Amino acid sequence: MISFKKKIFNLNFFIVFFIFFFSFLINSYYASTGVFPIDTFAHYDSGYRILNNQYPTREYWITSGIFIDFLESIFFRLMGVTWATHLFHSSIINGFISITFYFVLINLNLNKYYSLIYTLYFSILAYTISGTPFVDHHAAFLLLFGVFFLILAIIKNNFFCWIVVPWFFGFSLITKQVPAAYFIILLVSVFPLYFSFKKNFKIYFVILVSTIFFILFCLFLIKKLNLDLDAVYLQYFLYPQSIGADRLENLKKLKFAHFINHYKFILFPLFILLIATIKYIYKNFILLKSKNTFIYVLIILYSLALLFHQLLTKNQIYIYFLSPLLFAFVNILLMNKKKINFFFLILSFFIVFKLHLEYNEKRKFHDLRDVNLNKSNKAELIDNSLKGLNWITLYYRDSPSLEIKRLRNVMDFISKEKNPKMLITHYLFISSVLKQNLHSPSKFYTLDGVSFPLKGNKYYKDYKIFFTNIVNKNKINFIYLIKNEGISDLVVYDYLDNNCFIKQENKDLIIFKILKKC
């Protein structure tokens, strides 16, 4: 009997180890081929800047990603500022979220081997689609950690699980305001029913206290880092609302056929789970009070929150991991229908395989679907800290070596200027490679009003003052823009008075020489 238990334990240990190993490696492998600079390195320089006491909302304008930037800086502190560390950050998230998914499935009594297969499906489409730390992925998976721990709390009534749920929701919220805000609104509207049925109001108190501690923790950090609370509120809450309003208007133009076509692999299992859950309750109304009912509702609400967020975001579709996740919960709900469940398992395989070829093999998320990835060059030719990355981008698809050469020329030119300077670029690793403070006033430069306020936005003047203060406070002598990046010189003209600078150029750079205090 003891020997049998040991075998079961060893098997479980092996499965968990295999899931983590597979999830970690598949993310690392695909992330290392191809680059979309603004996304691939989204949190690279900002993590480095935090190491050097340059904090978001104070030294650079930010609309999202606060938590992920600080997490990136912790990894850099522990492991060094390298591509390998950057990749470790996202790969370890892929590993842990996959393991947690597996534990949730087996705790819901899904067959161990079905649980393993669905978990592997999930890991292939989870972080791997992006590969490197990315704000939407982090926000979605931190939220999903919260959902998974909430499910485990419901199943086991585990005190620790109830405590950590608000922290995961909170970390998701300070990674990106949505989809956490959407999900929390949906959760608050339906979940009080669970507590009223269970009459376990002590849990309300535990969640409330945990939430208060999370808020106090955030306020403590704001004070400790000497951040301006008004600036945090403006940049992270007020300004993003002005972006969201425009996107809600665009949502009205969405065509139903377009929506169905793009999200069919998610909508199909979601529809089945929704219908099966309704039928499950209708069959016996007392099941409305069951734990399982609320677990299915949780997964449905999470899926709806992510779908709504995806419709409003301008990024490539990143939520296809919902397809195997939803199929797994359909399988749990229809546990006794073996033939149907086997059919869904096979169907899910073909869906995952198709999406894997499109998003992982062709790196579609980074707009590299039509790029010959075999033409990539070693990124260590730019700097040894980027060792392990195979460099090729959309705009230099036929000549990555030319892009590498230009980058080396740009970095060599900038590094020779010893006076304070500012670089505005999509190549969000140059500051860390040069080990110089390049004083970028915004984290990103998407030029669509998402990264920072454009002219016409009601917060335009706030950003103009912010930009000017950075130039004056740091006594900036030169502002550099790399040519052919697609970043308009309006990023300078719109925010500095014209009599403050003169414009110069060389073959690689647009240079604004600052003449006086602006």
Unreliable sequence segments = none
Question: How many helices?
Answer: 20
Return Rg in Å: 24 Å
Main pleated sheet: 4 strands, mixed
Shape: globular
Fraction in helix: 55-70%
Q: For this entry, what is the oligomeric state of its chains? A: single chain
Strand order of the largest sheet: 3-4-6-5
First and last CA, distance = 80 Å
User: Beta fraction of the residues?
Assistant: under 5%
Mean pLDDT: 91
How many strands appear in the DSSP assignment?
6
What is the chain-wise order of helices and strands?
A: HHHHHHHHHHHHHHHHEEHEHHEHEE
**Structural class per helix/strand content?**
mainly alpha
Number of self-contained structural domains:
2
Care to describe what's here?
With 518 residues, the chain is mainly alpha-helical. The chain folds into 2 domains: 2-31 and 62-248 and 262-366, no CATH class; 395-514, no CATH class. Helix content is 62%, strand content 5%. The chain is built from 20 helices and 6 strands. The protein has helices at residues 2-31, 37-40, 44-51, 66-79, 83-107, 112-125, 135-156, 159-173, 180-190, 192-198, 202-224, 229-251, 256-283, 291-312, 322-333, 338-361, 400-416, 430-434, 460-473, 490-493, and strands at residues 377-378, 390-391, 421-424, 478-482, 501-505, 509-514. The strands form 2 sheets. Strands 3-4-6-5 form a 4-stranded mixed sheet, with no helix packed on it.
